[in-house]
Design goal:
globular; 5 strands; single chain
Amino acid sequence: MERITKYAKFNYSKKDEDLIVELGDYLNQKYEDIFNFFDSSLQREQVEINIIPTKKEYDEISKKIRGIDSIPKWSIGLSHDNKIEYVSLHDYKNTAHVFSEDKYLEKLDYYKKTIVHEYVHFVSGLYCKKNSLEWPVKFLNEGIATYLSGQKENMNIPFNYTLDDILVSKTCYDAWYLLTKYIIEEYGKDYFLELFGNNELATKEAPRLFEEA
């Protein structure tokens, strides 16, 4: 099935029909702010969002796109080539995000925020392409997607991390979020984007910013 909005084309199966309105309406509230964060003059290109019915199917698609042999159980979303691949909430029982029935509304809220996380990657890709920038360092790339999506908003997360967690770890989203939040709130958006667009500068500044944070 297909649903087209001004910002996205959703492809989905009938069993996910109940999710599409929720996802579409939520993303509609967020997408303009995301574009404006990076560059208000960015062309509002349409993204293709594929709701994959099962985690197993998603893993096979992700393996081909990423060129790797296995996909972590926690991985449920992937942004690439103006597309987003996203596991259906109805198959979370086969992911690391399994939940009990009484937690459905809470998990649905997080599900909507996670699609925004992937959408941030899509928009940041447009920003890098427009400005001929290399792909940003991971801690800023994932940090800004987590920050703008609100996935960890209002959570009391202690900064109990090391510099290696920031620079070397492959899955330290809490640390990346906290450092990104610190940079934006202490130095402002323009400085963050300067780091985002300059990997050499970002890597050089990371130890100092980490110690401050």
